[in-house]
């Protein structure tokens, strides 16, 4: 049966063995789930302060981190086949005289690998669930910083600016009211387009008042000019 995890003295012993160039053998405990009872080799001890899974174990072709509770020191001789059970090599059969081989016709086709014997599928996902989660976590791509585009109105001018994270991509620059209205039309948010139309309506009314004032001043100037012409 698998042990109950590594003690402080055993971890220190593993650290000394790694420093001497050895890779201690360990057995997975019940805390490792379906991997319990299988053997591995410790190849590194990382910083325990950074993660509780600081025991890096080589299992097959993978090197994955585990906590001290997931593994225990493997008993001596574990995983080795006793000499008494070693299968004797078959004795070579005496050569027999045979007729000369006939020419063979060989069709060069891809070699089909023999079916590999696997464990029941019901147990395999459970045994690989913990390494699969670590692999998925390590393969997660880095998310780029967010992009912010700002349309602003102040002191009678519309401006647009762009920023990605803390980096300014475009400093605020002035756009025409018609362009600002087209940009707002793309944003289907209740109340936003109405607010922009109110601002444009106020600007339009102010412009009309200024135009009326200028027309009145122009009319006065033209009347004065007409009087001067008649005085000749």
UniProtKB/TrEMBL annotation:
Coiled coil location: 192-231
UniProt keyword list: Coiled coil
Chain intervals for the UniProt region annotation (Disordered): 67-147
Lineage top rank: taxon: Bacteria
Protein's name in the database: Translation initiation factor
Species the sequence originates in: Micromonospora tulbaghiae
């Amino acid at each position: 049966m698998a042990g109950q995890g590594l003690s402080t003295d055993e971890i220190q012993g593993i650290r000394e063995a790694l420093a001497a160039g050895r890779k201690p053998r360990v057995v997975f405990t019940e805390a490792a789930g379906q991997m319990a009872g299988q053997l591995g080799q410790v190849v590194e001890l990382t910083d325990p302060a950074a993660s509780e899974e600081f025991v890096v174990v080589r299992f097959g072709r993978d090197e994955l981190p585990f906590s001290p509770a997931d593994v225990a020191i493997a008993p001596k001789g574990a995983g080795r086949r006793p000499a008494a059970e070693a299968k004797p090599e078959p004795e070579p059969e005496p050569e027999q005289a045979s007729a000369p081989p006939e020419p063979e016709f060989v069709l060069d086709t891809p070699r089909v690998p023999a079916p590999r014997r696997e464990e029941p599928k019901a147990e395999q996902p459970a045994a690989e669930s913990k390494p699969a989660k670590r692999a998925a976590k390590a393969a997660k791509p880095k998310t780029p910083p967010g992009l912010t585009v700002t349309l602003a109105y102040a002191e009678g001018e519309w401006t647009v600016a762009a920023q990605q994270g803390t980096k300014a991509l475009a400093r605020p620059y002035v756009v025409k009211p018609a362009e600002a209205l087209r940009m707002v039309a793309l944003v289907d948010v209740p109340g936003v387009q109405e607010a922009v139309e109110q601002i444009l309506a106020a600007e339009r009314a102010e412009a009309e008042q200024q135009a009326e004032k200028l027309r009145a001043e122009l009319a006065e100037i033209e009347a004065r000019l007409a009087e001067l012409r008649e005085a000749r």
